[in-house]
Structures are given as structure tokens and as C-alpha cells.
Design a protein that fits this description.
The structure is a homotetramer of 345-residue chains. With 345 residues, chain A is α/β, with parallel strands linked by helices. Chain A has helices spanning 11-21, 61-67, 80-89, 106-113, 120-125, 131-140, 149-164, 193-196, 211-222, 255-265, 315-330, and strands at 2-6, 27-32, 70-73, 93-96, 127-128, 143-145, 167-178, 201-202, 229-234, 241-249, 272-274, 292-299, 304-311. In chain A, a hairpin with a 4-residue loop joins strand 12 (292-299) and strand 13. The radius of gyration of chain A is 20 Å and the shape is globular. The two termini of chain A are 35 Å apart. Chains A and B meet through strand 7, strand 8, strand 9, strand 10 and strand 12 of A and strand 7, strand 8, strand 9, strand 10 and strand 12 of B.
Chain lengths: 345, 345, 345, 345
């Protein structure tokens, strides 16, 4: 099968390349870049020198249709909703890594992304690309909205309990911490090395645009509209998200009973690992891999559940999950190209 | 005035030296080290070469009494409770930077530190050395128990509301993140650079030994016994603690009303800074300084208060606060030796 | 083919596991650990949970012979020279990642490693495992001494010119900088995070034990005994070595002529990349990969050549090169298991 | 005395503020910023909140004259040569932290900075502000050109031997490594955290614009025109420069004789520390301080001298040295405001 990447110069584009390079079933036949049109890939990403040196093409629906069977859109939010409808109309399968097709509700998009959605009809068609929840739908999908990095971390951490209906949602708090690569490749004051190293901060406190995406998916699982507090923080490191989640439960359970619910829910799942105590999740244990690790801890002093979740924001939180979705859409083994050992140290 | 440091080889001992060196009212006349007895300070801390080169002495109550008016004990937990009573019996003023005299209740000490307290009578005499709460008591104290780094961060963040009685304690969660220097100078697997860099993890989830210390102090402020969930995390950086605190309130207030309570509570306080929005606390803004920065954010979607608190664990979280206490005990200006600009970048 | 790893708990052992896991021709049938005997691998290396969980065995020649066709010894220097002769006598092919069989001269070993060599007869049998220089010998070898990380970086940077006989050796200086993982997994004061982060230092200045290994190999290429100054430094990062090499040449050449010599020397080599100017080597461009990148720069003001070399100390500098050697010894395609894209960011 | 800072928003401007705040003899009466005109300092540098909150003024010679006795220019290269002549003509003492007045030769400026110098007459008047070399001239100077960070590190490392005439200059190589803050506060791709962390690279190999400045000063000391190879590298850390210098000597000396030359040359110098072996310089031992540490090592295998030099690029390499110069120019004790302990950990 032939695949393409629209917008290859950012970090998710580059990470897709890395993963697809090791995939035994697909051929990369088309990569585009607006700012590097006409230039070979290593001029943007020098580590590809001698490995993968396609020339960056301008975006063209015609060329995409001619050269590929499926395209990944790694364009920024706002741009993707312009390009994806064209690709879909031309009959191509699309996996969109931006936020543009994740929310079913165009009003929510406007509220959180401060921009009118330009292609609302597509919102209903897109399948939310979290294989652990929507495997069968993804297999049949033509347009997959690849989840955000924070949402993947949080939804996987809560899905088993949400589906059981035992979460006391109004008590739920998500304290999330992310490495810097999640913010992308464009330099900024906040991500300037001397500002960011040896520093730690929260940002968009209770206002992050990934909030409605998590709430949408967890509401579906819970069978009712749920909402909660979400606070992201910026870690002085490159890769990794760790979410610490606090919640009361509506029923009394032991830590072991809770762990059983997770075990059952994720039985057979290749990329979700429930850690046996006393092991606790660390971002380094999933580095550069497609795993999402989970730890369960019951705070018996306060009768409160603590769930810890760790993943690599560029892999399970972006490009790896996109490849997992592609595997489902194109009929490959789900873990093809994703069976690497996490990089440690 | 002449001061001494018992246990000068660790990070808090070294940081005390750094601060006292710039203090215009005291002379450092006695430093001890068990492992470096007889050696000049730069053999342990080479950055002191040519600056401060006292020879490390063995611990001796007699010498301490003869040479000093006040001593700081920077011994590890468990060792300090052996040494401090001897110093006190000899009539010396003592500021203890260990956890040994922070808890009023010897049973709590046993429960959380897994060790029988060897000097329970002194627990009642020690004043908890948080100047913003106990300024007058500290001035008259002979034994000050210098607060822990996490507790300083959390108590200062909650004191104004605790004192007002508006915190709904059973909903309260503290998610704290600390740099590595808080764990001390002794090498370990967890703090080995290749394990710790580019990594993030939680530890002692809902089981950290600083929990009862926070609860003790906040209970006093609240006027009733309170408890909550506390989860610490390890940041891949050297200095800095940031605590993110989530709680419901028992009365309805606007963000601005809450901020007023803080402003009033900390009026005239030199080392607590309430940040004006949209500024949010960052550990780098208090780096190597005695400040504790606070941000207040009301999550209006969930009617939940979020308080963010940042300090340098070795300064306001340890040695700086100890110097602040010393200033009060010896009649210096409270900010003497502590008026430095935070180091950024 | 069945392979084993003796001493799997260190960083090179763990990195071997990572690479062999993706190798399509070998099966890992035997791993040993002295300190973790009887325990499943994830107890030492938790990131292997659910991926690779062999039980660590005690070292036994009998078991090695029975279960494997080739073993990697990832034991520390000094221990390997005890174990390897036993494995060889039992007929096993061995790739030794320690320094114990790299020097042909037992006296040199004593001089630089401060330890009498316990198996001098094997020194002559071992092939120095740098495939770019000894490909044919490695194919036929039974014992391969896998090069050190610094030596690989320096020898590959100088081999083309050494073989041409144009290096003015007495002017040559190697200024090398390494990430911390090269120092291994055992905690120490120097590698304690708060000592090592935000810090940079030289160590073993002109006294590093890798010096004779480089000189031995470059002498062979030069056809005469050569020596030079080597100064290593410790970088506050996990992976990567960059060597900056300064030398006069004995003949007059342009930068482009020099580059031609390198191009010719490394023609067809998969893992050595000569960068086109103005691109300069960066450790990140070879991160977690088996590449060694080279840059050539002629300082026309001083008629001096500057060669820059970058590799990942755990891959091309250790485990990756070992797998490359194994491929040659067992008849696999040389790049099998090593065709990954460097990890960036 | 009243002092001002022209261009307060960059890192050197901010570091000057930090040091001047602790200086007991001067008052900061005037700070300017082009981009933050009219705004209080904490809007650029939030860590100054509640500490130092002057409003940023536009640059005006009249206001400078009226409000100050001496000004620091922390403008970028190219801008400073426009502003400084105006300040000088108005009779103000000026310390310029840019490169604009360091080179005596306007042609050299054009060659290395690729820009015509706009005020050549001032080049002759400026005193090179390295107090260890030009103390008496600085005391009488009206315009001081504050040295670059790399040049301070290299000149202090070589001055004793240069003055003795024992350096074999054509063999000399400087391999320098700098933290990222030296590159300033403006974000760029190279200093973007995910590009810069866990990465190491050389840049401007044998072409760095600080080269002629070092050569100019060392030529004066050597009494003849000297030149050498200089290669800078970028360290994944915030502060610190370490230079490793390799050279042959023209006379035979022991390591101890060389050390004696340094001891004698720097006798009485407060800010140059010659480390006793086996101690070796580390950037962390001078962090946030005005010290320059030196180590001497004789490579007896190759009869080559290795000098190691470490300083904090923002302090002894910029703002600290500027304050030292100010102290000399205004008649303060030379170390006033600079007697701090290096920050470690």
C-alpha cells in the first residue's frame, strides 16, 4: 500500500516518517511541505540523511490521489479542516492528526479553538481514532480523527471505570504534565532552552483546548454528559506525558477489584500495560514506543482513587496511534511497525 | 553573633553556608561533618575554594557551646533527634532542618517515619518555623523545627483560606512536583542522571511522610482535624517545587474575592508573592531565592479552586527559611541575607 | 540462530536486548545476571514489561553451550576476561563488549587498566570488531572484541587519513565529549542528577584508558606507532558522543580533496555518513541509531584540519556495533536489526 | 552613584540588574527598552515582581545624562556603536557589553561582523575591560569595552604563559563549550528546547566572531601577532563556558613550574582560582558567580600543555565583569556586589 504525509516538517510528520520507515507493509510515496517545497527531506530533518530523502512536494489533491491509497494529515489545527475535505472528496482514506475532526460538535470547536469550523459535515463522519475503544469502527472508517496526546493519556486511564459507571465525575481532577515536543517545532519564548530548562510551570489552567475532547469521549463511555477539571503543565524534557487523575467512586471497591476491571477491559490489548504494584508509571518506560502505562492506587485515608497514566506524546499520543489506526484501516496486523522496545536510558 | 552548622556536607548544609556567607550579622564559627572530619570544606564542596574554607569538625556539644550562639542542625532525620536534645540541654538555640521536631505527636512520627522518636519531650517545645504563621513564637523560641519543602509550599498556598474556614477539606487534592535536590546528596538509582533526565514519575503516592506535617499545621489553622490526598512527583531538574492544589470551597466566592483574602493575609510579607493574572507561577521565577509565589485560578466550569505555589526547595523550602528563622530568633531584620534576585535564566 | 547475553542488567546489556528484539534472524535464549538471578527481566528493566520477560539465569558455561550459538558478554572490565575463555573453550562464538580483549598487548592492559590480564593468550585471537575496518576478519572470527565508544568515534573519524599516511600525528588532539550513559548504570556522586545536570567537566585528562585502544588501531592503519592527546568530557545528557579532532596534515590538500578521501574510504558503508557542508554533526542526528556522522572542516587560517564525529555511545559505540558484528559472524545481512531512523526530537 | 542600563530586556541586561540590586554603592535610576517602552520591568522579567519594578524608558541621551553617572549598554552588536558615541559625547561614562568597541581595528570588525563600523574613532579610546590585565587603564577609562564570554575564558587561561612568551602559538587549539544563555533571549530553531536538549554540536567551526578579539589581546601579551584555531560548541545547559586549550610550549617546564607562573600572575586576584590537582574545573563550581577557574595539566606522553578554564558566561563572561569594571571606574572596592558563593547544586 502507498501512503502519504501532508505536512511533513513538524514533529508529528517527522515521527510518522520514522515509524512508517520500519513498517513492512507500506511504501511512502508522497510527502508535502509548504515551507520546504522542492527540497529534499534532510534539509528539514537532517537525521534522515542517507535514510529517507524524498523531495517535499506542494500539497495537491490530484497528486495525492494518484500516488497514495491513504494519507496522513499532519497539518496544524485550522489548516487541516481545509485540506481534509478535498482529500476525502477525491476518495482517499485520511487519518487526520490535527484537532479539526475530533469534536463532533462544531460549536464546541468554535468555543475552544476560537475559530469557526469550515467543514462541519465531516465532523459526523470522522471516527475517533482510539483503537482500544473504536477498533471496529476504525477498520471501516474513511476518515479517522487521531486523538490528542493528553486525551489519549486521560481516556485510556479512565475508560474502564467510565464504562462501568462508577466514577463520581464531579470530584474528578486531571493533573497532566507534558514534555515540550507536544508544543511543536516552531520556536517560542516559552520553549526557548534557557527559559524552559530547569523550569516547571502550569499553563492554560482549566482552559486547555483538549478538555472538550476528553469530556466528549468519556461522556460516551459514561452514558451521560460529564465534565471535570483539567490542568496541564510543561516538563523540562522532550518526550512524555504523565497524567495523575484523582476521583471518588460511586461504589465501594478495593484496589484489587479496580485493577481487575482494568485487566478485563484491556485484556488482549497490546499497547496498554497495567503495572503490577509497587511499580509505578514513568514516562521513560514508554519512551519512543506506542505503549500507554497505567498505575492504580487507592488512597485509603481519603477513599479516593488515583490513576497514573504515561505515554510518549509523539507516539501513542500522535504518530504511533496514527499508524495503529492505519493498520486497522488497511488490514495489517494492528501492531505492525509498532513493536519496538521503549528507549531507556 | 556566632553560628554553627551541624552536618555541613549535604545540600541543605551547603545552602546554609551560601546564605550565611552573605549575611552581614553573623559569623560562621563551627561546622561539623561526620564523613569529612578534619578536612577543609572545599574537599566536600569544591565551589567554596578560596571563599570559605573552614575545617570540618567532629560533632561536640562542648565545642558547639563554646563557639556558637545558635546552631543549625542539618543532620538527616533520625540523627537530629539524637543531637538536638544535647545542644538544647547545653543551652544553645537550635534550628533543626530535619523532620524530627516538626510533628507534635510522637505516634505520628513512628507511623510515618517508621522509627520510634527518641526525644518526645522536645516535640512540645519546638516551634514550627514558618515565619508567616508563627513569627512571634519564633522570636522567642529556643528550638525551631524548620518546615519541610513540600509542607512550606502547601501550607503557604492554603493558609489564608484555611484560616477563613472556607476550604472543603475532603475534596482537597495536592499534586506536587519537586526537583531532585530535595532528595539530597547521596547517589541512588532513581537520581542517577541517565535514569532521571528525560523522565518523570510520581513516588510515594498518597504515602509521603510530609503529609502529616501539612495536615497538622492546616488543622491548626482550620480549627479542626483535616486531611487530604498528597501525591509528590520527581522533576528532571535540580531546584524547585510546584504544587497544584484543587479544592471545593464551602462558600461561594469570586476569584477576585479569594485573591483579596490572600492579599490581606500576606500583607507586608516580604517572601510571599501573589501573582497578578494572567501571570502564573514558574519555579524559575523563585530560583535560588526565598520567595514563595502563588497563583489563584477559579475553575468556573466545575466551581473548583486551583491554587498554584512555587518555591525553591533548598531556599524557602529549607536553608533560606532557616535563615529567616534565625533572623527572628537573633533580632536581625527578617530579610537580612535573603534579599537576592531569583536567578533567571 | 540462538543468542545469549551474559550480564544483562547494565546499559549495554539492556541496549543489546532492545536491538535483538527487532532482529528477524535470532532468538534470545539465555540471559544472565549476577545480582538479579532468578528474577524476570522487568524487575531490572521495567520498560520490558509485557515485551520481553526472560528470567535472569546465573552464568553457566554448560547452559550457555546448550542454549546458544553465540553469546554477547556485557560484563564489566576485569570480569569478562574470566568468563570469555570458558565460553571460548566450550566452542561458543563470543562478542565481548568489555575492554578486556581489545588490546593486543597484555602490558598495555596492565598499564591502563591497573590490573594484570588473566587470559593473555586470547588477546591474539580476538578480532577488533570495527566492521568498517575488519569486515572479513570478523566474518571468520570466533572472538570479537567490540570497540569502545570513544575509540569507535575517533577511529572512524581518522581512518581514511591514517590509511593514506597524511596525518601529522604529533600535532593531533582529540577533544571528546560524552553523554552520561557511557559511564554505566551504577550510581555515583559524579552522575548524581543534581551534580551532573547544568554542569560540564573534563575528566581523566590525557589519561583515559581508551587511549591505547585508539592508538593501537590507528597505528595499524598508519603503518607506524602513533600516539596523541585524548581528553574526554562529560555532557549533561544521556546519549551521544561528539569528538572534535584537530590535526596538521603532512601534505597540502583542499577540504574537498579530503572529503573525497573519506567518500572513497567509506563508499558503500551503511553506517558512516559524511555530511555535506554546511551541515555539521550533532549527536541528536544519530540518537538511538547505529550511524556515525562525520564533518570535515579545513581551518584555512591555520592550515589545520578539524574532523567532527558523532555517534550514539550505546549503539554504534556499543550494542549496535555488537549486533553488526554478530550479523557478520552469523551470515546475516550486515544491517539487519539496525535499520532504524535516529530518534529526533 | 547613579547608573543606568540601555537595553534591559536581554539576558545580560537582566543579569546586570540582578548584580546591581545587591551592590551597596549604586542606585539604578534609568533602564531602557525598545520593545517594552512604558512597561514595568516584571512584564519582561517576571522574576523581578515585587523586587525591582522600574518602568522601561525609551533611549534618550538627555535623560541618560540627567539621571545617571554611568551607563551600561547591553544593546546588541551593531546597535551599540550607534548609541555609545552619543552617550560619550554627552560626557557619560560607558561600559559597553556588546562587541562593538572590543576590536581596535575597524577592518577586522567588518571582516568578522560583516558590517561597516559606524564609529571608528571610538575604537582607539575604548579600554578592553579585563580587570586582571587592564586594571589601571580601566580606573581612568570613560569607555570600557566589556570582553566577550569566550574571550574572557580563553585570555585568562593563557595570559600568564602569553606574557612569559612560552606559548608555541601555531600549535594552539581552543576547544570551547558554552551553555545556551550566551546566545541570548531571542528564540530560534537551534535553541528550541526539543532541538537543544539531549543534543550537542559544534558551530561556526574555526569561524567564530570572537576569534579576532582573543587574538588581539593575546598578541598584545605575547608581544607579537598570534593566531590560533577556535572551535565553539553548544552545551545542553543554561549557564557556563568551559574551554579546553591545547598547546606546545617553546621551553621545557614541569607542570608545577607552569602552575607557579599562574600563581604568580594571578596573585591577589579575587576572581581567578587556580585549582589544586587533582581537582578539575567544572562549570557548576562557578555558577552564577564572577569566578574563572583554571586547571593546568601536562600531557607528559605528548609534551603538550592542557589548560582548562571555566566561568559563567553571564557573570564573569558579561554582567559580572561589567560590574567589576564599574567598581574600578567609580572607585568602589573591586569585588563590591560580586562576593557571592557559586550556586551548587
Amino acid at each position: 500500500m502507498r501512503v502519504g504525509i501532508i505536512g511533513v516538517t513538524g514533529y508529528t510528520g517527522s515521527e510518522l516518517l520514522r515509524l512508517l520507515f520500519s513498517h513492512r507493509g507500506v511504501e511512502l510515496t508522497y510527502v508535502t511541505s509548504h515551507s520546504f517545497t522542492g527540497k529534499p527531506l534532510p534539509e528539514v530533518h537532517p537525521h534522515y540523511l542517507g535514510i529517507l530523502e524524498p523531495v517535499c512536494r506542494p500539497f495537491s489533491v490530484g497528486e495525492a490521489v494518484e500516488k497514495t491509497d491513504l494519507v496522513f494529515s499532519a497539518l496544524p489545527h485550522g489548516e487541516s479542516m481545509e485540506a481534509v475535505p478535498l482529500l476525502r472528496e477525491a476518495g482517499l482514506k485520511v487519518i487526520d492528526l490535527s484537532a479539526d475532526f475530533r469534536l463532533a460538535d462544531a460549536d464546541l470547536y468554535l468555543e475552544w479553538y476560537k475559530k469557526e469550523h469550515s467543514a462541519p459535515p465531516y465532523l459526523g463522519q470522522a471516527v475517533y481514532g482510539l483503537p482500544e475503544l473504536y477498533r471496529e469502527e476504525i477498520k471501516k472508517a474513511s476518515l479517522v480523527a487521531n486523538p490528542g496526546c493528553y486525551p489519549t493519556s486521560v481516556i485510556l486511564a479512565l475508560a474502564p471505570l467510565a464504562a462501568r459507571g462508577v466514577v463520581d465525575w464531579d470530584t474528578l481532577v486531571v493533573d497532566a504534565k507534558s514534555g515540550t515536543s507536544g508544543a511543536g517545532r516552531v520556536p517560542s519564548q516559552v520553549l526557548h532552552f534557557p527559559e524552559c530548562a530547569e523550569n516547571f510551570r502550569a499553563y492554560r489552567v482549566a482552559e486547555h483546548q483538549h478538555t472538550p475532547e476528553m469530556e466528549q469521549e468519556l461522556s460516551k463511555l459514561a452514558g451521560r454528559k460529564v465534565s471535570f477539571t483539567f490542568v496541564p503543565h510543561l516538563l523540562p524534557m522532550i518526550r512524555g506525558i504523565l497524567s495523575t487523575i484523582y476521583t471518588d467512586l460511586t461504589v465501594k471497591m478495593t484496589e484489587e477489584e479496580i485493577r481487575d476491571i482494568y485487566r478485563e477491559f484491556y485484556r488482549g490489548e497490546k499497547f496498554v500495560r497495567l503495572l503490577p504494584p509497587p511499580l509505578l508509571v514513568e514516562t521513560r518506560n514508554v519512551y519512543a514506543s506506542n505503549y500507554c502505562d497505567l498505575s492504580i492506587k487507592w488512597d485509603s485515608r481519603k477513599n479516593r482513587l488515583i490513576v497514573l497514566s504515561a505515554l510518549d506524546n509523539l507516539v501513542k499520543g500522535a504518530a504511533g496511534q496514527a499508524v495503529q489506526n492505519m493498520n486497522l484501516m488497511l488490514g495489517f496486523k494492528e501492531e505492525e511497525g509498532l513493536e519496538m522496545v521503549p528507549l531507556r536510558p
